[in-house]
Amino acid sequence: MTTNSLTLARIFPRPKSGKGLWGWIGTVDHKRIGTLYGITSFIWFLIAGIEALLMRIQLSDAELDIISPDLYNQLFTMHGTSMVFLVIMPLSAAFFNWIIPLQIGARDVAFPRLNALSYWIFLFGSLLMNFSWLIGQAPDGGWFGYAPNSSATFSPGSGMTFWIVGLNILGVASIAAGLNFVVTIVNMRAPGMTFFKLPIFTWMTLITSILIVLALPVLAVAGIQLQADRLFGTHFYNSLAGGDPVLWQHMFWLFGHPEVYILILPAMGIVSEVLPTFARKPLFGYAFVVFAGIVIGFLGWFVWSHHMFTVGLGPAANSAFAISTMLIGLPTGVKIFNWMATLWGGSIKFTTAMWFSVSFIALFTIGGLSGVMHASVPSDTQQQDTYFVVAHFHYVLVGGALMGIFSGIYFWWPKAYGHFLNEKLGKINFWLMFIGMNLQFGPQHWLGMNGMPRRIYTYAENMGWEPSNMVASVGGFILALGVLVFIINIFVSKKQNNIASSDPWDGRTLEWSIPSPVPVYNFREVPEVKFRDDFWFKKYPQTIKEYYHDFDEEEIKNMKPIKPDEKDLGENHGIHLPDLSYYPLILAAGVTILAVGMMTHFSVIVLGGIGIFWGAIGWSLEPVNDPESH
Amino acid sequence: MKFLRKKLPLKHLLLTMPFIVISFMFLIGCNPEDPQSTFGDKGPIAKQQKDLFILIFWVAAFVFIAVESALIYLLVKYRYKNNKLPYQSHGNTKLEIIWTIVPAIVLTFVAVPTIQVIWDQQNGVPDDLGEPLRVEAIGHQWWFEFRYPDLEIITANELHIPINRPINIKLQSEDVIHSFWIPKLGGKLDMVPLNDNYMWLLAEETGIYYGQCAEFCGVAHALMRFRAIAQTEQDFETWVEDMRTEPIPPQSESEINGRNLFMAQCSMCHTNNSYTSGSYIREINSQKSRWDAWLNDIENSPQVSAPNLTHFGTRHTVGAGIKEFSKENPDNLIKWIKDPSSIKIGTRMEKHASIYKTEENRLTDSEIKDISNYLLSLKPNIK
Q1: Label partner for A11 (CA 20 to 30 A): which of A70, A119, A376, B135?
Q2: Chain B interface includes A287 (CB < 8 A)
Q3: First to last CA, chain B
Q4: Given pLDDT bands bounded at 50, 70 and 90, which one contains residue A2?
Q5: Domain that holds residue A586
C-alpha cells in the first residue's frame, strides 16, 4: 500500500533513530525543533545586534564618515527586518515549541511534520534574505518597505527583491506554525484542562497564533503584489503608473500592528508564568489577564493607522485611530496592575528569571506610556519618524519582548537541558542589559523631541544631538556586553553542570511535574487536570481552599500531596511517537528554490516545483510510523 | 539552591538608580534653543502641540512614578523572608474593575484635548486669522521646491514666509514619499505622490527655522533639509518684489566667464531667470519635462529635476540646507560645484551632468571659481 512512498523514501532512507546529525535533520520532536528555532534565531539576534552596533558607531558623533549612507540604509533595514522576523518571532516560536506541549500535557504538537516544515522554511527564508549581504546588495528600503521607494525605479538593485521574496517565504513558515499551535492548544489539551485552566503562557500563545494566522496573510497579499510590481511590472503600488503608495501603508500596518502584539504577547505570557512562580502565589486575576490578552488581540486590529498619523488621512480618521489607540492602553494597563498585584503578599525570590520579568514590568510601562503619547495625534506629528518613536518601540521590544524572552530562557533552561544557568553570571547579564538598554534608548526620547529624525546616517554639528547620541552608543555596547555574558554563561553552565531536579523553582504548571531534561516522550502518563496551576495545588493540597473557596473539604483531606516524576524511562519507554521524516526538509527546500527561481531564471522555478512535488507527495504517502518498525 | 535562600538586601534599591539618571538626563536634554527642538516653538501650531505633549507628559510622569515606586515597594516589602507559603489568592474583581476604570478616566483627560486639537489644526486654516498665503511645497529626491502660485514665484530649499500670517501649504511629491517638517513651527505632514496634502503654519517671530525631511526617501534622506525664513510683512513684500526684479548683470571678467559656463553646462536643468512674467508657468513645465526625461532614461538622461537658482546670491545654503556659504566665504559653494558627493552623497547632478562624466569635460578650478562668482552675483538689481 505504501510502495510508492517507500520507493521515494529509499533515495534517502527514513531516519530511524534520533541520534546524530541525521536525527536532528529528520526530527519531528517539538523539543528539538524548539532548540533549532532557538539556536537559529539567536544567531540572527547576534547578527542583527552587530548591525545595530555599527549604526550606533556611525551615529555616536556628528558628521562621522565611518559607514556609507548606502550601507547604513542596508543596516537599518536588515536590523529591523531581522529583529522582527528572524529574532523575536522565532525566539517566541522556540518557546511555543518547547513549552506548549509540556504545559498542556501533550506528547507533541498536533502536526509534528508541519512543525518541522515551518522550521526549515524559516531557516531557508532567513538564509536567503541574508544571502543578499554576500552579494553586496542587502535590502535598503526600510523594514516597512514603503512604496514607491521600494519600487524597481527607486530601488533598482536586487536588495528589495531579496527582502520581499524572503518575507513571503517566512510568512509561509509563520502561518503554518500559527495554525499548528492553534490546533495543538485547542485539540491536544490533557483531560480536564478546560480553557480556563490553561496556563497563561499557553493562552497568550493561542492568541498570538490566531493573530499570526490572521495577520500574516495580509502581509503575504501585499508582499505578492509588491513582488509582482518589482518582478513583473504590475502597478499595485507604483505611483509612477497610477498605483497607490498609501494602500501599501494600509496593507503593511494592517499586518504590522497585530504583528506588534504577536511580538509582545508571548513575552507577556512568559512573565505571567515567572512572576507567580517566584512570588509563590497564583497569578492575580487570571480571568482578567486572559480577557485583557483577548481584548488586546482584538483591538490590535483597529489601531493600524496610528502608524500613519502624518500621512494625511484627515481629522476624522486621525481622531478615530487616536481613540482606539488609547483604548488599547487599558487592557495593557490591566495586565501591568495584575502582575504587580501578583507580587503583593508574595514571597519573592530574586532569581535572574525574576529580575528579567520584573524589569519587563518596569520597562514595558515606559514603552506603554510613550505609546499613549503617540496616540495624541497633534503631539505625535512632532514625534512621528523621530528618535522618540525609536525609543518608544525599543522600550517595548527590548525592554518588553526581549527581557521577557531572556526571563523565559533562564526560567525554562533547567527544564529543557537538565542543568541551571549560572545565577551569578545571570545577574551580571541582567544588569548589563538593563543599564545598557536604558542608556541606549532613554536619551533617544529627547533626541526625538529635539528634532532628530529616524533613519538618518549622519547629522550636523550644531543640532545639539551629540551628547545624547554618544550616551546611546555607549549604552548599546553595554547592552551587547550583557548579551556576551549570556553566551559565556551558556558554556560555563554546561561545564559546571549544576543538575536541576524536575521541579527546581517550586513550579506551578505541568511541565515541572516531569523529569529535567524532558524525556523524549514528555509525560509517562497523560495527566488529568483538576485545577489552574494544577501541579502546585496537587503539591500543596492544603492551599486549595485559599484559591477555590467552594472546594469540597473532604476531597482535600483525601488528596495526597504529589511529587514530580524524576525518572526518565530512557530508550525503551515503549510510548508511541511519530517517526522521523525528511520530507519537511525537502518540501521547504523546494519552496525556497522556487522563490529563488522567481528572482533568477525560469528553470530554477521548475527545479523548485519538482522539490515541492517530491516533498508533498512523499509526505502525504508516508505513514506516521513505518510498518517495519512495529 | 543557595541563592534562593539569600535575603534581598536593600542595596537592590539600586534598581531606582537608572531612573534617577534618566530623569537627570531628561533635564539636560531639553534645550529649546537647539535648531530643531520641538520645545522651542515659534508659532501657534507648534505651541499647541507642545502644550498637548506637556499635558500628556505630566499624566504619564504621574503614572510612571506611581507604577515604578509601587513596583519597588512591592519588591522590597514582599521579598523572601521565610519558607511560609503565601496566601494563594485568586484575585479581587472589585480591585480589577477599579484599575480598569481609573485609567479610562485618566485617558479621557488626554483624549478630549487631543480630539479638540486635531480638529483645530487639521481642518483647514481658521477664518479669523486673515487671508492665508498659499505655498506649494514639492518633494524631490533630495531637495525641496517651493512655489507661490498667487505670487508666481518659484524657489528652492529656502522658504520665505511673512510672520503673523497663516501659510497654507500644499504638499506634493514628484518621486517617493517625503515629509515636510519645521519643528519650531509645527509637526510634520507627508508629501505623498498622487496624494496631495494640506497643512497650515504660522510663525510669530522672525528668524530662520530649520526643516528636514522626516520620511525615509532613499540614499540622501539624511541630507534633505531646508530652511524657513520668517520675515516681517514688509520684508516679505520686499523679497517678493526682489524676486520679480532682474539680477545685476555680471560685472567682472570672472562673472561673465561664469555666466557663459553656467549657460553651457548648468542651465538645461537649473533655471536662473524666473523673474520675468510668464516664467512661473514656464519653469513648472520645464521641471516636468526634466522629470520625464529622467524617467525615460534613469541611467543616462542629460536632464534631471533641479532647484531653481533665480537670485541664488541671496541664499544661505547649498545642497538643500546642508552647507552654508556667503560671498565672503564661498568655499562650500565651490566644493559643491567641484565635487557634489563630498557634501551630499547620491546627488543626481553628479551622476547626470556631463562635466562630471569624463575627465576632459571636467571643469578646471578657475572655471569653478568663475561659476561660483557668477552665482554669488545673482542678486536683484535694486535701483
Answers
A1: A119
A2: yes
A3: 92
A4: very low
A5: 1-23+579-630
